[in-house]
Fold this protein.
Amino acid sequence: MGCLSTWALLLALGLTSLTTAQGTWKKGSSRVVRQIDPAEYFSEDDYDWTAWFNVDHPGGRGDYEQLDAIRFYYRTRVCDNPRALDARTTDWVPARDTREKVHSDPALGFWCVNAEQDSGRNCSNYAVRFLCPKGNTGSTGLKVAWGLWSDWGRCLAKCGQAAVQTRSRKCQSDIQCSGATVETRDCNGPACPRARCSLHCEMGRVNAECDACMCQDHFVLGSVRSAGGLPAPGATILRAGPGAKLLTLTDHNGHFRIPGICPDGNSTLTIRLQKHAPHTVIVPHSTKPSSVLSIMLNRAERLHVVKNPENKARRVGQTAALCCQVAGSPEPEEYQWFHNGSLLDRKQLNYDSTLVLRNLSLDQTGEYYCRASNQAGAIKSKLATLTVLGKTQPSCNPKPESHSIFLPHDCFQNSTDSRYYDIGKCPTGTCAGQLDNGIRCKDSVAYCCGVAKMEEKTLKCQGYELPIMVVSKCGCQKCVEIKSIVRGRAVALDNGEPMRFGHIYINGVRVSRTGYKGTFSIQVPHDTERLVMTFVDNMDKFVNTTKVLPFNAKGGAVYHDIKLLRKKQPVTISSTELNTLELGEVAGQDPIAEIEIPPNSFYRQSGEVFVGNVKASITFLDARDISTAAAAQSDLNFVGNEGDTLPLRTYGMFSVDFRGEEAGEPLNAGEVKVKMDSAQVKMPEHLSAMKLWSLNPDTGMWEEEGSFQMEKKQRGKREERTFLIGNMEIRERRLFNLDVPENRRCYVKVRSFRSDRFMPSEQVEGVVVTLINMEPTPGYSTNPRAWGRFDSVITGPNGACVPAFCDDQKPDAYSAHVMANMGGEELEAVPSAPKLNPSIVGVPQPYLGKLNYRRSDHDDLRLKRTAFSINLAKPSPNTAEELNGPVYPFDQLKECEEAPFSAGHFRFSRVEGDRYDYNTVPFNEDDPMSWTEGYLSWWPKPMEYRACYVKVKINAPHELNVRSRNQGGTHPKTVGQLYGLRDTRSIRDMDQSAVSAVCLEFKCSGMLYDQDRVDRTLVKVIPQGSCKRDKVNSMLQEYLVNHLPLAVNNDTNEFTMLAPLDPLGHNYGIYTVTDQDPRTAKEIALGRCFDGTSDGTSRVMKSSEGVALTFTCGDREATGQSVFQALRNSPGQPLPGAVRDRRGRKQRANALRNSRRRSTRNPAGIPNLRTG
């Protein structure tokens, strides 16, 4: 952990709201009076509370729960003169805990005005109740019909016991009285004779309260230091125990003295200090007249969710347990559980962090979440869905959903008049399987909906028959569990220099290192909810960087590019002088802020004041430069007072590193001033809400460090400028942020596809979609001034919903850049020029025009095609065409996530050469549950995916398609049967115009799913043209000869082999990679094949390196055989010569572009860099 002692601090400016504590109010004063306990003023024998009333909501001007309005709706429910009023929110939070400014008068009611709240915050939704005389809850004019209550009966409880007293009353009216005739109350018996004190003291004597031992001749001396080492004045010292007793407070130096504490090894003290975690210390055993304690406090740790409740499916009558694990210091004091937004009764369900629901009924279906709280705040868990099914109701819909695949180019189907065929699929989701009776947070066996039965069909193709397996029935079965992987590269933002051999930390523990090229691969720890990783450069070139990385919880690998800020060279300053350091990196513009360090502010980790020269390095991330967004720390979120995770928008971040010049030891700094130029804040409402924030590197959440105050400064004779002045200490955290909370939020729907056909069945999961919010300028100009926030989300089976700031008043108030990355490859956005096609973009007009969709090459075709920009216009509830995506209000996340394919969405597609995959047994590489047992499965083991490629060189003037036909070779169950086809188009060599090469996938040899015996796949490599086999790699040929049986190779137009069992490598022209994720295995194997090495990677085809087979082909271009050319034309129709030639040129241009493309990653994080 030595490397983490100088965590970079991030300074954030943010908006928060101040509130006014309110409790129960009584009449009799023009101002609001807080009443701690109504029982102190009104006897419970004579008064009772009414039901709760909620007749207004906080929309418009605010929430007005006025007594006249309540009487209008509930005429007989409130008495004439209520004696007191109580208020709470609809989330059961007492009004006194909301910190909102509210008003109350029992004679008028309760009201909260939105305009009186802090900027960006509206009133909560409140409910009220009134304290009325018992039996007198009618309104004016109604006669009280009850007589007086009788005296309470005698209490029959004995010493130390409890009993029940009763009293009664009679109805004195001819009409029926409303209310109870008999009332009861608890009562206690007489006090028992005091028992003899059982406390035994090894030292001293027992005190009068019989709760501690006292030693009159001994005293305890102590010193308390805050986090960072400074003295802690005002800390409270308490005797620990059930009845904690305040003993003393620390003085201005953090010292204390307590007489009478026994040094018996049992006396325990608790030290408390604001914003610090409680600390407990035991007075050690001693015979000396005094004991000396030295106490170092730790920063209080905000509550954070360690484990969220899980989705579960049960049948009527069964039991379900939902668990919520929350950590923090101090620990949570209370847990609350909510069902569909309503608080569940703790007394009835007897829950804490675990909610157990027994004998389930259908009405208990719904969404559940927990809320944990302590004195410092609260936190809410994610929603978990509990599905309760009838006892005979199918857990999964047995009927498969429609799912069409694209057939080979020579397999046109007359029955459907297309090359598509519906093979069906089963919807993913949790189902109710066969569970034991154990009550567990996590089910011992997870059950998911999947394929229960498949049928084999045969399709007629040109000259051959194609076998295909079709899903005929779905059912509930054990989930296929695979591990989640996060991999990528950590490189410099400015020039792409890799962070070599850097350390990677999770929860403060070093888990891995980056490689020589900055690469890393991390298996996500089990039960991880939020993956927070910190990258530490032991060469001290880069700022320590904390990232919250999205990952695929279902399993599989996700790729991330980690951009690192280069650490600023330190400057030498004197610790005894006033020092001012500027924050700003944009040339020609004034600094955003400056840091002012008073004299003698530096101190060592021990708290000792440091005197001497200081090496000060402050690295500022300037949000006015859009290229810095990729290097921003964490994910710009914080936890609000009610436990909700809320977004921040940044004005800049800075990392601080102070070290002694001679010894190089890290230094802290106390009472540092941050002065922010108010002229840099272009949105006036942000001035009053700006905050300083620091980053918690363990949780990845920003935590408030301090606020700002307005102050005018004279600069020169005439110039007067206004600054925001904030104070902070630079202690164990070294990464800070200047941020503002923002409440104008939406979601943007984005989908990614395997190709630009944009078929629903070709959606790709595991793509990282990133949205960068741009800050508006004064007047909400369409020319953005700076970025304010970024968010990244992983696509699932139904795309992704990316959070963003939006505005419902001006469509161009906020804009955004959106990008998509998969395995280091940037996906291509739909073009916006020369003509915008709404049906291809995925958004209908006129909403698309309002959003002002523009691809990054809209004005300059030389720019990349891998991003688009939009205006974030919040959908209008009064405009029908805006209510179906792609932008959704923030409270409609579920609607966004479950939106049908026909709803509006933005699109990305993979930029690939011509390629076609066909599996006899269908399998979606993004969905492990789509794997089915079968001898003809391409991937025989769901937990181990092995990718195999052969490199083929083509001597020809044009690119050609090459096919691999994969059949069973030696296994008796599969011999001669088709596993699948692969068609791939060759890529032109950059230096040789008549040479191209292709990396062609084939099915690896090995065990089939039953693990009984191996099958050596019979692989045919067939160039689709007039070709002749020239050469076979000599080492590959020797291997095949030595590992019988040997396949017959009489046809020189193709090559046939029984695929090797061994991973041979580049010397043979065979590339094999095994991984837990199929896409990762294929990407690594392809990178090696392109590079022609066994350990390298490239996206540029090196046609002369690591080749297995060489063919020479004729002049005729295989345009008629191209899968993608055939797809782009009318099925079954001959291609006109002119069209064929134009399409051929387009394919060659695509291939040339692919050959030039390394990984198309943008090293600077800018979506519109030039590619040529």
